[in-house]
Amino acid sequence: MFGLVSAFVLSALAATSVKAHGYVQDVVIGSTHYTGYLPYSDPYYPTPPERIIRPIPGNGPVTNLTLIDIQCNGYTEGGVVGSKPAPIFASPVPAGSQVHLNWTTWPDSHKGPIITYLARAPSDITKWQPGTSAVWFKVDESGKTADGKWAATDLLAASNSIYTFTIPPKLKAGQYIIRHEIIALHSAFDQFGAQFYPSCIQIEVTGSGNALPTSGLVAFPGAYTESTPGIVFDIYADPTLPYPIPGPAVWTGGD
Ligand SMILES: *[C@@H]1O[C@H](CO)[C@@H](O)[C@H](O)[C@H]1NC(C)=O
Ligand SMILES: *[C@@H]1O[C@H](CO)[C@@H](O)[C@H](O)[C@H]1NC(C)=O
Ligand SMILES: [Cu+2]
């Protein structure tokens, strides 16, 4: 049985290794490790392991900003359109805690920003699909430093492929999807060239805070278009040119 599984895994890996990009393979919150959705092994188990990250088809990007795939890296199975919910969620995640996102090895050519959103689930997160509703607010972003260092390559490489952000300390308790993405800009000098690598991670925030954004929520698809600043950008041009991170302003969480 296991030999068969491994053969499947190996052939899947061989088929995709030519364009190896990446995904979040592990999430650490407090002292708890949550293994990410592993697209080259999880689907091949007779009983797939339960993950907190919504399924993705592989390590490749989404490039069409009009598709629902841009929300959680698109996974369609059995008529599911958009993100298929994961069966479990990380809990407890105290408001104010750090979330550590462990990416697979990221190619140095794939320079770009790292951006993180949250969406509050109105009901059971293991069944919720946001669809095209404007429910997302940005909680963290990192683009290019003044001396030309990019989040997705320089910053990630310097931290062992771990990106860390903080849940807003006063965020109201409840279930949330974290939409965490790298945008790779190596072909973004022209329209339709930017590559999006989103991951959707399900969590349950605890605490006594009562803060929620009251305006400025965005939808995926919808938040980005080919004319949004930072979607078309030439990383090979003047390296001192500041990079405008796409999407709304970061919500500071009522601080
Ligand atoms: C994006 O997807 C839409 C809907 O399927 C399609 O009409 C459009 O041609 C696609 N755009 C690109 C650049 O592939
Ligand atoms: C990231 O996850 C991989 C796979 O689980 C693991 O081998 C590696 O040690 C993790 N990196 C860190 C810095 O924890
Ligand atoms: Cu790539």
TrEMBL record:
InterPro entries: AA9 (IPR049892), AA9_LPMO (IPR005103). Coiled coil: none annotated. Its EC number is 1.14.99.56. Its cofactor is Cu(2+). One of its GO terms (biological process) is cellulose catabolic process. One of its GO terms (molecular function) is monooxygenase activity. It catalyses: [(1->4)-beta-D-glucosyl]n+m + reduced acceptor + O2 = 4-dehydro-beta-D-glucosyl-[(1->4)-beta-D-glucosyl]n-1 + [(1->4)-beta-D-glucosyl]m + acceptor + H2O. Keywords: Carbohydrate metabolism, Cellulose degradation, Copper, Disulfide bond, Metal-binding, Monooxygenase, Oxidoreductase, Polysaccharide degradation, Signal. Residues 21-239 form the Auxiliary Activity family 9 catalytic domain. It holds the Pfam family AA9. Residues 1-20 form the signal peptide. Belongs to the polysaccharide monooxygenase AA9 family. PANTHER family: ENDOGLUCANASE IV (PTHR33353:SF6), PUTATIVE (AFU_ORTHOLOGUE AFUA_1G12560)-RELATED (PTHR33353). This is lytic cellulose monooxygenase (C4-dehydrogenating). The lineage of its organism: Eukaryota, Fungi, Dikarya, Basidiomycota, Agaricomycotina.
